[in-house]
Specification:
The structure is a homotetramer of 256-residue chains. The first copy, chain A, is α/β, with parallel strands linked by helices and 256 residues long. Chain A is built from seven helices and seven strands. In chain A, strand 5, helix 5 and strand 6 form a beta-alpha-beta unit. In chain A, helix 1 (18-28) crosses helix 7, helix 3 packs parallel to helix 4 and helix 4 runs parallel beside helix 5. The longest helix of chain A has 28 residues, at 108-135. Chains A and B meet through helix 4 and helix 5 of A and helix 4 and helix 5 of B. Chains A, B, C, D: InterPro entries: NAD(P)-bd_dom_sf, SDR_fam.
Chain lengths: 256, 256, 256, 256
């Protein structure tokens, strides 16, 4: 990649979560970071942390993951990380929307919120990313013009009693990733999807769950965001002869 | 069902298609028909045909399958087929949106059109239907308060190069059907999903496809809407001990 | 089928079970019955019952479902139901082998028993059946030379902690059925697979399970063999334009 | 792992193939190698190559992958790599049996050969391996007592016209791997399955296929065994919080 600085774009970042850990992991590989998220203040704090650790990171707050928000934020990203000095070569769509309710209690707004954040945002994000990737040259080591990954969950492969809003969106995201993987493989663009099956040890989940009681201490029963990030870095580095569309990630002791 | 007249509601009806054939098949079983579709004129013509054949059918044209359209049309349906004289006991969500384009040629409007017609409409339709079903008594023969089926396709289980708008929506619909099947089984509400794998012999497809040349004449290579309808009637009549969530339907000679 | 008598062959028959119920259901449609099973005495008693009910049924006891046993028993079937007076037009492979053990407690004999009964037997049975089907003419109503169905279960689609012997065999059976469905569709031979998800109310299961306490009385929580048989008859009668490879069958209240 | 030397056991090794490349990759990580294969002479040549490259490798030729052969060869492995000086900590079951024939041309011997090499061998191999793994201590970095991986293919997830012998065996192997992953995760034993989708560039495939004409030169259309091996090493090193049961691997330009 010579003197062109590679950039990772992440949508969906929260302190201590998968997006933040992935950003940090790619920064260690020499990437600049464009971080898209709601919650401008928290996002800026996270970017400040990354910068004090020596990374080149920029916050791109959005009011929502609607397609217009996504399109608009990419204009700012291109201004901040202009070609030919920078090239976006990796992207993670990690935004999600957690909602578990009995079907008849779901409002249309609930349904739309899941669709917008999970599918519409990913659609717009992918169009922006793939348009950029197609202009990149092919990396010699990996055979890639770019790497695009989506974060899924067990809800991506199984509808359940309380997931009648989330499951349609997560299945939709998975379908998008499969279609894109098939369409853009021959462009040497690598598209992947990860099924995260288990609770991730984040400040958010620690504040929310205490069942089983020792889940935070017991490394066998929950995911570390850093370990998910390692998997994403691994996938980004897979050489052209052996690319993965999908893998699952779960703690050693997870019941499934 | 004594003197209460059962009603089938179908969303997505076109002359000679799956919706129309299902309507006719349920009419022969004694159901009144509430038919929701775009294209008021064609819909009325189809309803007139059904009525001349002796069925009790009513046209409920909609401008779109958006949730508000669906909610609004159900008010008209309840007015036309009021309780306790009528009871909606079967429903088919057959509306779909065919779109095959390279990903980067898709507009946001394309994406939304697929989402709205396939997923949002089904979500709103299902809420209306299941609310009604929960008020029904349990049919002695089938053990059902009601039967709700969704029409899927191979795009429902496989993303492909030109289906990056359609596949997310159809996978989403399938996820919805699975979630609802799991949530409402214990309410004795039967929710099913059919994967139609092949071309259906309709006026529309006859006007559009002529490959292979003899496909209309060759009964082994395409689906008849009437045969899909028979499958839907069969599913509606399955007894409580053995309900199907999903089946596939394809012509004898289909390559798959 | 004019004056040629159609024959159903069933492998895996036990009083009150799926095989027996399917036999009775096809007998009511005019089929003669060739019933293959272990346990000669019980099999003969069941055949006697079918005969007193007016069916034409014959017992073909086997020492095992090994391929040689299956091949040998088909010679007897052809002798008893000779062409051109009889034509085998439907077949059910219903033999299974229930084994749930921790992996390290499984013996090689356990493993082989599951493989032999579930996969090897089905392989040999299918070769016998499809060779015969290919000689049949095509039925006008269904477009079929013959119908072959396999009984699967949730173990057919999910490996679990105690199914490391059963799951490989049941997944193997499902793979066989899918391969055959694809290969012989163009021969107008219909191959199907049913996933039975739940407990079946049979003398055997009644003697074995009493959890939940009222499961036998509660029609919403278990399958009736007769209802599975109805599904098999339905599939056998599907017309050529709309054949099902796979459906699932479960009680209304089944958790899944 | 202090002064205890880790050992990788591979079943199914051929010069230039996945097994050999995986052996070499683990050797570079400090593993001793126990290589099981048919074809004693070729196996010894391969072991000699590994040894000249500085690896500690031993050939364990087998006449077949039958369970008795596998059990017997493990006695030799334990003699050669005795505890506590050595500990088997990784294992690859890579043996397969390629057979593509129309169903009615398959002999029972064909069917058994696929079953024996693909499923029975894997069953026996897994029992030997997991018994050993359970005695290991838990590795601090990975949280594992051991890592067991199986090589699958697209035939593992799709039955096709000419795979009615291979698909039942490969689906069976995948089911075994899923059952074991679920049963032994809580023992900190990591079981994985890889779906290799595409042609692998080996001496064997180069001698056999020349379609498309430039497939050997074009790095985008075929897998390198070394890249599959990299994936296996990555999986072996996944930390306890994020283990993968299954991933797919295919060339950038593969049509799927």
């Amino acid at each position: 990649m010579s003197t062109i600085k590679p950039v990772l774009v992440v949508a969906g970042v929260r302190a201590g979560g998968t997006g933040a850990a992935t950003a940090a992991a790619f920064a260690r590989k020499g990437y600049s970071l464009a971080l898209i998220s709601r919650g401008a203040e928290d996002l800026q704090a996270l970017v400040d942390d990354l910068k004090s650790a020596g990374s080149d990171a920029t916050a791109f707050p959005v009011p929502s993951y609607s397609a217009p928000s996504i399109s608009s934020v990419f204009q700012s990203i291109h201004t901040r990380y202009p070609s030919p000095h920078y090239a976006i070569r990796a992207a993670l769509y990690n935004a999600s929307h957690s909602i578990r309710k009995p079907f008849l209690e779901l409002t249309l707004a609930d349904f739309h919120a899941a669709q917008e954040t999970i599918v519409e945002g990913a659609f717009a994000f992918s169009q922006e990313i793939i348009r950029v990737f197609k202009e990149n040259d092919i990396d010699v080591d990996t055979g890639k013009r770019g790497f695009l990954i989506f974060t899924g969950s067990t809800t991506s492969i199984r509808g359940n009693r309380t997931t009648s809003a989330a499951a349609p969106a997560k299945w939709g995201l998975r379908a998008l990733s499969q279609s894109l993987s098939k369409e853009f493989g021959e462009w040497n663009i690598h598209v992947a999807h990860a099924i995260i099956d288990g609770i991730i040890n984040t400040p958010f989940s620690r504040s929310r769950f205490n069942d089983p009681p020792n889940w935070v201490e017991n490394e066998d029963v929950r995911l570390n965001a850093e370990d998910i990030a390692k998997a994403y870095v691994y996938l980004a580095e897979q050489p052209r002869s052996a690319w993965t569309w999908e893998l699952d990630l779960r703690p050693a002791h997870e019941k499934w």
